[in-house]
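User: I'm putting together a teaching handout on how sequence relates to shape, and I'd like one worked example. Could you take P-loop containing nucleoside triphosphate hydrolase protein from Mortierella polycephala, show the sequence you're using, and then write out its predicted structure as tokens right after it?

Assistant: Happy to. First the sequence, then the structure tokens directly below it.
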Amino acid sequence: MGYPHDKKGSVSSPKSSTDGNSNNTGRLSYSSSQPQDSYDGPKRVLSHSPSTGYNGGSSRGSTSSAPGPPLPSRAPSTIHRNGISNVSGINRSFIPVKDEYREVYHDLTQIYKRKIKPLETTYNFEGFHSGPLTDSDILAKPMVLLLGQYSTGKTTFIKHLIESDYPGSHIGTDRFVAVMGGSESRVIPGNAAAVAADLPFRGLDRFGQAFLTRFQVSQCPNSLLDSMTLIDTPGILAGDKQRIERGYDFTKTIEWFAQRSDLVLLFFDSHKLDISDEFKNSIFALKGQEEKVRVILNKSDMVDQQQLMRVYGALMWSLGKVIQTPEVMRVYLGSFWLNRPPNVFEDCRALLDAEQADLLKDLRSLPRNAAIRKVNEIVKRARLAKVHAYIIGHLKKEMPAVFGKKSRQRELIRDLQGEFLKVQQIYSVPAGDFPNVTAFRQSLEAYKFENFAKISQPILSVAEEALSVDLPKIMKRFPQHNPLLELSQKNPFIGPPEPFNSLNTNMKSDLPPSYWHFSSVDRASAHPIFQSLNPIEGKINGSTAKPYLMGTGLSVEVLAKVWMLADWTCDGYLSEDEFAVALHLVRAVESGGEDALPSTLPESLLP
Ligand SMILES: Nc1ncnc2c1ncn2[C@@H]1O[C@H](COP(=O)(O)OP(=O)(O)OP(=O)(O)O)[C@@H](O)[C@H]1O
């Protein structure tokens, strides 16, 4: 019995064909522009499975995680029949067991509380941007969000990683589950989790009771969970019925979790590449966070090599339509079981093992990347708070002392763009650091400008110190190599985050000490060049910067080092300041030879 095909040539699973939810299962990959016969993997595989009992992974509602018995006739001669069980082919123990970045998080919390938060509270930052960060927001372990259609193997993947069940897990997850480390196994219901001061879920109450009853924290002692939190999400079914019955905005909750996650894993099943409208919307909600997204084409050993290639191609084609990134999305092929059944296709085993190893490597670099991301976010937030303070202080200054307050306030709101320009000139703030003028104008309506705080130099200086001294110092604690680079070298699908791939760290600086001060960096000349490279959100990536830097005539090895030094945030992009410093370093080499470059970036070169 094959799965019935819908009008678009997509394949409906038995589940979706019986629950009345299949109507909207638009397999995104097979819109009218796609030839209908472009991919028929699921049909072929499943048409072979009348007596297998294998349900395409659709045993939703069942309480057993065991798959149906595999079909001998489906198995090609390459299948191993040696009863392999619990074979991942990978040593999972190389995922870090302890979080070595605790100290970084602790110091970040102190810097934020003492030096940045006062700036936020003095100038009503919360009313314009977001509420103050709590300790648990900063101290939270790296989070991995798992997202996908129903029965794509998300829960099984978690069990595979932690090598056990987690409390309160069952097949057919109908709720959000935060799987976390803890001294004992327990389940914390959503309402309690959303008010717990030591859990990073306090903002979730905004999604209401309907959501909180569908949210739980599952804690258990587990070494992997000491380093990260895994978020299991409800399997997405097609159709309005499910969406309406949920009673909360699924896409918004996904957005909330994705913003706080360090990695988002999108799950697909090689048997059925459905992307329902709700899944599509959830993927759209990841916009702007594409660098965190990885795709897992799961159950890859349930199809043979030829079918797998076709599914892979179809998936890439589909993803290209939903996720608009300059880089090709990284897709891991795999089959993640706690206990792998014996009769699966083995013809791609070496590939699948290599892919699993890559994925685990990605997970292994998570604590470090998450710590860097957190420092980055605090830096971004502090810069925003600083500009915000300048704007609010400026508006206060523009108010009359006694008469005509209301009309002056209206005038200032109307000419807000002009006021932003004044602030930009008075305080030398880069234009890119300003908030969206329309949103800011709307928020301003709720305030009386005369009640705003005046510019307070002491509060601003303290925040400035955090930005120029404390936070760069924290960044220095991260070794000068970039694991993203290692990842990209292993990974033919994503471009290197830096444009160059070799590095010599033994160079010594012979230039006068004054050269290594940020004040000597020629930012004015760097500005037009940077702008001509079309920065996105104030940054340029490696592929944009590379042609320009190659034009300097320096060797790739030297430019590799220039990039490493200049990208002090280690995010694989250059901000305008980082770019100006990169050009400064290039000039150092041009005048002093290759040995002019220091082995690490002097602190004085940080803005
Ligand atoms: N690698 C795999 N190969 C084949 N079948 C699998 C694999 N992983 C899981 N399954 C089967 O797929 C079904 C669904 O698995 P699981 O519950 O983990 O998916 P899920 O994505 O969490 O589902 P839901 O979203 O509905 O909660 C189960 O019957 C499970 O045994």
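A couple of points you could highlight for students: The CA atoms of residues 38 and 314 lie 8 Å apart. The longest helix spans residues 366-397.
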